[in-house]
Design brief:
flat; about 750 residues; 32 helices; single chain
Length: about 750
C-alpha cells in the first residue's frame, strides 16, 4: 500500500483519448462511411409534423443517391430510369424503354424516423405487379454499436424483403437462437385476427425497434405509391376503396365532431330502464346509483385510415398495429369505454371480451368478438382524450364480409346476477370524406394462431427460474454477510464461483446485462417521452433483472446489482483477482484526482438522459461508452473499435480495479442516485474504524471508505471485502488486539 500513485497514469490519458475517439465515431461495416455520416440539415423530430410538411422536390433525399448503379442493385434487369414523379415522389425504372416498376426513398415518402428520432434512408424498388424487388440501406444514425450490431446486420435484414408481395402484411419475428431459446421465433408485435398469410421476416435482435420502423417505412411507402400508380395489390385491398393516407391533426373532441369517432352516452337511468323494460333485475352495483350519473361513454372508430388511426394511436402504434403489419384487406376498429360506474360493473375490458359480450353487426352479418380478434391497449396517444377505463383494437379480415362504407353496429351485452342480458347499441359510420369508390366485398379465408410475446416467456421458464435462484442466493449472501465473511477462504471461494456464474451464464449465455439504454427507456416511459415497453417484454431476463434491481435499491442500494448481478462488473473483478495474484502492481490515485474523476459518470448520466429526452441526435454516440454489449452480450464478436474500447477498459482494470465502474459507468451513476432510497445499513463498522484504524480503507477496491471510516454508499459495490476484514482476527487491528489480550 506504499506504492507511489503516479506511475502508469499515462494509461488513464490513453483511456480518455479512446473515449473521445469512440464518441466521435461509431462502428461501420461494408458500406459504413456512406451510411453513417451526419445529415447535412436538420429535420423536425416528430413524424406527425413531418407528414404534413410541404416537400420541395429539389430537397428529396433520393436525388443525393440516385444513379444507375443503385437502380441496377435493386432491378438487375434495368437499363435506365426516368425523372422523379412529383406526385408520388418516386422514380420510374425502365428495361429497354419499357417501365418495369418504380424506386423511392422511404423518408421522402413516409417521413418516418428511427429509434434515434432521426431520419433513416432506404431505397425501395417495387415492380408493376406489386412485388418488392429489393431494399438498399443508404444511411442511418441508429445507435447500433452499443447494441452489438453493425450495418451488415441491417443489410442482411433488408435482403429478406426481396420478392415480398405488398398485399401481405409483415410479421416481423425475432429468431430465438443461441443459448436463450433454441430454434424458435416469436412475432415482435402482438396483434390479433387472421395472421396466417402474413409474410414472416426475421428482425435484427436487440435492435427490434429499428427493425419495426424500417419495416413500417418500406411497406407503408410502397403500398402508398403502388395505389397512386393504380397497381392492384389485391381486389379486396381496403386502400382501393378507402383513403388510407388522408391525414389532418385532430384532438379527441375534433374526431368526435367530424364523426370519425362515434360516442354513445349511457346514464344509470338508461341502463336501469333497459333492464326494467325486459322485466329483469339490474346488477346490484348499479341498482342504487343516482339516475343522473354516467354509466358509460362508448367510443368506436375505424382506425384503418391514417386520419383517424394516427390521431388516436399515434404514428408509431398506427404503423405497428394497423398499417404495414397487416394484410391490405384488414379492417381495424377501435373501441373504448369511459366511466367509473362501468368499472365497478365490468372491472376490465378483458372480462367482456372473455365473456364474448361484444358483437359487431352489419345487416345479416354478426361477429362475436373474442380474444383472437381483439388486442387490448393500455392507453392511447390521442390529444385531450378522456380517462378511458378500457380500450382495444378489433381486427376483421375480408372473410367476414364487412363493408367499411356501411354503418356498423357495436352491440354491448350486459348480464345481471341471473345471467339475463340486455343489449346496448352504438352505431358507427366512417365519414364519407374517406370514401374513394364503391366498396365491393370479396371473401377470403385464412386461419392460424400467431406467435406472441407469451411464447418468449413460456420458453424462457428455465432462465427465469435460474435468475430467481441466483437472486435468492446473492440476496442471502448480503443478508447473512456477517456470518459468511467470518471465514475468509470460504467467502473468497463463494465470491469467485458466484462471479464466474454471473459472467458465464447470465452474461455470455443469456445476455442478461442491464444497460444505460434500459434506464433511459424507463425514464422515457415514466415521462411519457415515447419509451417502448415492448423492448422490455421481449427480453424476460432483462425485464426481471431490472425489476429485481429496482426493488433492491430500497434495501441495499446499488450493491445487489453492481456487486453481484452485473456481468461486466463480475468480469472486471475476476480479472482484478488474477492481476493481484500474478503480482501486477496496483495504481493508487491521489485522493483529489480520484474524487474528481468520480463525477464523470454522473455528468455522462445526465447528458445521456437529458439528450435522449430532448431527442438530440449527437447523444447516440454517448451510448458507445458502455462496453457491456461488446464484452458480454456479443462475447467480443463486434466491430474492432468497440472491441478495442472494451479491451482497454479491462486492461486498465488490471492496474486500477473497477476503473470503469468508479469513473465512467452512467448506469452505475444512475443506480447510485436512485439507491439513496436505501432503508437499511447492512455493512458493520467499529468505533475504531477511521480513527485510528484504516485497514478496511486499504482493501476496498473502489475507495468507497472515507478517512473517517464511514462508507460512501454511492461508491460502494457491496463486494464485502471490508466485512471480511471486519471479522478477521488475524488482520483487523482492533480484533488482533483483542486476540492478543485473550492469549495473555
Amino acid at each position: 500500500m506504499s506504492q507511489k500513485p503516479y506511475p502508469k497514469l499515462n494509461i488513464l490519458f490513453f483511456l480518455i483519448y479512446l473515449l473521445l475517439s469512440c464518441l466521435a465515431t461509431v462502428s461501420i461495416a461494408n458500406e459504413g462511411p456512406a451510411l453513417l455520416k451526419k445529415t447535412e440539415k436538420k429535420e423536425k423530430l416528430r413524424e406527425e409534423d413531418l407528414v404534413i410538411k410541404e416537400i420541395d422536390i429539389n430537397d428529396l433525399t433520393i436525388k443525393k443517391y440516385l444513379n444507375i448503379d443503385l437502380v441496377k442493385s435493386i432491378f438487375n434487369e434495368a437499363t435506365s430510369f426516368g425523372e422523379i414523379d412529383e406526385t408520388t415522389l418516386s422514380v420510374p425504372v425502365y428495361q429497354n424503354e419499357i417501365e418495369i416498376g418504380f424506386l423511392f426513398e422511404t423518408f421522402d415518402v413516409t417521413r418516418g424516423l428511427g429509434y434515434s428520432r432521426r431520419p433513416f434512408n432506404l431505397a425501395v424498388g417495387v415492380d408493376n405487379k406489386g412485388i418488392i424487388r429489393n431494399v438498399k440501406l443508404l444511411k442511418h444514425v441508429e445507435p447500433i454499436a452499443i447494441l452489438g450490431r453493425t450495418d451488415q446486420d441491417f443489410i442482411d435484414y433488408l435482403d429478406q424483403y426481396k420478392n415480398t408481395n405488398l398485399k401481405s402484411g409483415i410479421s416481423l419475428t425475432l429468431e430465438l437462437t443461441g443459448a436463450d431459446i433454441e430454434g424458435d421465433s416469436v412475432a415482435m408485435r402482438e396483434t390479433a385476427g387472421e395472421v396466417d398469410s402474413l409474410t414472416k421476416i426475421d428482425g435484427v435482435s436487440r435492435t427490434t425497434t429499428s427493425s419495426l420502423l424500417f419495416m413500417d417505412a418500406i411497406m407503408r411507402g410502397a403500398r402508398k405509391i403502388a395505389r397512386q400508380k393504380n397497381i392492384i395489390l389485391d381486389k379486396n385491398d381496403l386502400g382501393n376503396f378507402i383513403d388510407l393516407e388522408l391525414y389532418n391533426q385532430q384532438d379527441w373532441k375534433g374526431l368526435i365532431n367530424d364523426k370519425s369517432l362515434s360516442l354513445k352516452t349511457i346514464s344509470i337511468f338508461d341502463l336501469q330502464e333497459s333492464f326494467k323494460n325486459k322485466k329483469l333485475d339490474a346488477p346490484r352495483s348499479i341498482r342504487f346509483k343516482g339516475e343522473e350519473e354516467l354509466f358509460v361513454n362508448i367510443y368506436m372508430a375505424n382506425v384503418s385510415p391514417a386520419g383517424i388511426g394516427v390521431n388516436i394511436l399515434g404514428r408509431r402504434w398506427f404503423d405497428q398495429y394497423i398499417s404495414a403489419g397487416r394484410n391490405v384487406d384488414d379492417q381495424v376498429y377501435y373501441i373504448a369505454f369511459e366511466g367509473k360506474n362501468w368499472i365497478s360493473l365490468e372491472d376490465r375490458i378483458g372480462k367482456i371480451i372473455e365473456n364474448k359480450n361484444i358483437l359487431l353487426k352489419q345487416g345479416n352479418i354478426e361477429i362475436s368478438i373474442d380474444k383472437k380478434l381483439f388486442k387490448e391497449l393500455p392507453f392511447n396517444h390521442a390529444k385531450n382524450s378522456p380517462n378511458i377505463a378500457g380500450q382495444g383494437l378489433i381486427y376483421i379480415s375480408s372473410k367476414y364480409k364487412l363493408n367499411p362504407q356501411m354503418p356498423i353496429d357495436l352491440v354491448y351485452k350486459i348480464n345481471n346476477k341471473e345471467n339475463n342480458s340486455i343489449y346496448l347499441n352504438t352505431l358507427y359510420a366512417l365519414p364519407k370524406s374517406y370514401y374513394l369508390k364503391e366498396f365491393v366485398e370479396v371473401n377470403n379465408s385464412n386461419k392460424k394462431e400467431s406467435n406472441t410475446i407469451n411464447t418468449i416467456w413460456k420458453n424462457n421458464k428455465l432462465n427465469i427460474l435460474l435468475l430467481i435462484i441466483t437472486t435468492i442466493l446473492s440476496s442471502a449472501i448480503l443478508i447473512f454477510n456477517n456470518s459468511i465473511t467470518k471465514n475468509r477462504k470460504l467467502f473468497f471461494s463463494i465470491r469467485v464461483l458466484f462471479l464466474s456464474w454471473i459472467v458465464v451464464w447470465l452474461g455470455w449465455i443469456v445476455g442478461g446485462q442491464l444497460s444505460i439504454i434500459h434506464l433511459v427507456n424507463l425514464f422515457k416511459l415514466g415521462a411519457n417521452f415515447g419509451g417502448d415497453i415492448t423492448t422490455f417484454l421481449i427480453e424476460p431476463v432483462i425485464l426481471l433483472l431490472g425489476l429485481i434491481t429496482i426493488l433492491s435499491l430500497f434495501i441495499w442500494g446499488r450493491a445487489l446489482f453492481c456487486g453481484w448481478l452485473c456481468p461486466f462488473g463480475a468480469l472486471q473483478e475476476i480479472l482484478a483477482i488474477i492481476s493481484r495474484n500474478i503480482g501486477i502492481k496496483q495504481i493508487i490515485l491521489p485522493k483529489k484526482i480520484d474524487q474528481k474523476l468520480r463525477y464523470i459518470k454522473y455528468i455522462l448520466l445526465m447528458t445521456i438522459i437529458i439528450g435522449s429526452l430532448l431527442e438530440i441526435n449527437f447523444i447516440n454516440y454517448f451510448y458507445n461508452i458502455e462496453p457491456f454489449k461488446t464484452a458480454i452480450t456479443l462475447r467480443f464478436i463486434a466491430p474492432y473499435k468497440v472491441v478495442m474500447w472494451a479491451v482497454l477498459l479491462l486492461l486498465v482494470n488490471l492496474y486500477l480495479e473497477r476503473a470503469y465502474c468508479r469513473f465512467l459507468c452512467p448506469l452505475g451513476g444512475g443506480l447510485a442516485l436512485l439507491g439513496k432510497v436505501r432503508l437499511i445499513s447492512f455493512l458493520k463498522r467499529k468505533k475504531e474504524c477511521g480513527n485510528p484504524c484504516k485497514a478496511c480503507n486499504q482493501v476496498c477496491p473502489t475507495g468507497a471508505i472515507q478517512n473517517t471510516g464511514k462508507i460512501d454508499m454511492n461508491e460502494c459495490l457491496g463486494c464485502l471485502d471490508c466485512q471480511v476484514m471486519y471479522n478477521d482476527y488475524d488482520k483487523c487491528p482492533p480484533l488482533v488486539a483483542i486476540r492478543k489480550e485473550i492469549k495473555v
